Amino acid sequence: MSINTVEPQTPGFVAAVSAAAGAFFGLFVGTAQGSGLLGIVIGAVLLGTMGFVFAGMAEREKALRWIIFAVFLVAGFALGGLSVALVGGLFGWFAGWFIFWLATSRYRAPLAPYLTPGQVLWHYTFRVIAGAIFVFLITPILVVMPLSFNAQDFFTFTPEMLRFDPAGYSLKHYEDFFNNPDWQQALWNSLKIAPMATLLSVGFGTLAAIGLSQPHVPFRRAIMAILISPMIVPLIISAAGMYFFYSRIGLQGTYFGVVLAHAALGIPFVIITVTATLVGFDRSLTRAAANMGAGPVTTFFRVQMPLILPGVISGGLFAFITSFDEVVVVLFVGSAGQKTLPWQMFTGLREQISPTILAVATILVVISIMLLTTVEMLRRRSERLRGMSPS
């Protein structure tokens, strides 16, 4: 027998692990319905019983999984209509897959055969914890996006939306954003401030990172700590300090003052990304260029910059996102003439509850996803250029 061959698991083991999974999911469902403890009990009993009953029926896995899926789908439809039926169907599909995944020991297939049960348990526990953290972080964002298509002026899902009735959905909040002069002025202000702040952040941050990467620079660690302090110090403290300083030198309430403030917030991101790129930079290339007669400026633009460009662009994108989404500092440093998009959203939440905020939030989320995807692509390209990953 091959060392990778694994035996089917006992009904007791499948029932115990299935009950733990059922209790985990039951906690969320029960909490949403007002009783987390009841959800834990029902989820544990339901999935544990299914695991015990179906553990010895692996030869009929395909048919049983379809039956479980259909039962949960019908039960969900009976309890809450089409939307709950979809959730029930997804849970039924997962329950059927999970039970037979345990019963047939398929969970051991991708793992090394010498791992102990404790190591196997930690392997999957770590992934469950990471997945739970991901769900907690991403769920609020995913909830906002469908709400932005609400046909009513509500911040909650209407019965028509839950029934997937086309009458419950509308683009009127997006139309209000593109037709409302207040929102368009705020968007224009953000588009005027963020690019300029990004250019300053990239310029100063790149030069600072290159300088601090030189081993002969004294007090490098202390200088680095000071330069990245804006991303460590609470934002409200930085905003208050900028307000008192800028008001003394006449920059408070001006366009240039807001740009400088946002540039100060973006510089740490550029320094960190460019410094990380410079870790794998071969300094013999700059020495070779100098030996060939190239000056410092020519060496920088012809030799060094092409290799660190992915890190520079990544830092610039982070600086742009920081400036475009920032609201606290602009409240202190800016004036009514520099009201940015996040400021307008904050005002809308405080003074007049408008669902247009949900449409704007969705647009910002889409833009952020596109920019972060670009950052990831640039990171991989940088690793390939430095020979840290295969092409």
TrEMBL record:
SUPFAM superfamilies associated with the record: MetI-like
InterPro entries assigned: MetI-like, MetI-like_sf
UniProt topology in membrane: Multi-pass membrane protein
Domain of life: Bacteria
Transmembrane spans: 12-30, 36-56, 85-103, 124-149, 193-212, 224-246, 258-281, 307-333, 353-378
Subcellular localization(s) per the UniProt record: Cell inner membrane; Cell membrane
Broad class of the protein's primary localization: membrane
Domain ABC transmembrane type-1: 187-375
Alphabetized Gene3D superfamilies for the sequence: MetI-like
Keywords: Cell inner membrane, Cell membrane, Membrane, Transmembrane, Transmembrane helix, Transport
PROSITE patterns on file: ABC_TM1
Signal peptide interval: none
Family: Belongs to the binding-protein-dependent transport system permease family.
PANTHER family the UniProt entry points to: INNER MEMBRANE ABC TRANSPORTER PERMEASE PROTEIN YDCV
Identification of the protein by name: ABC transporter permease
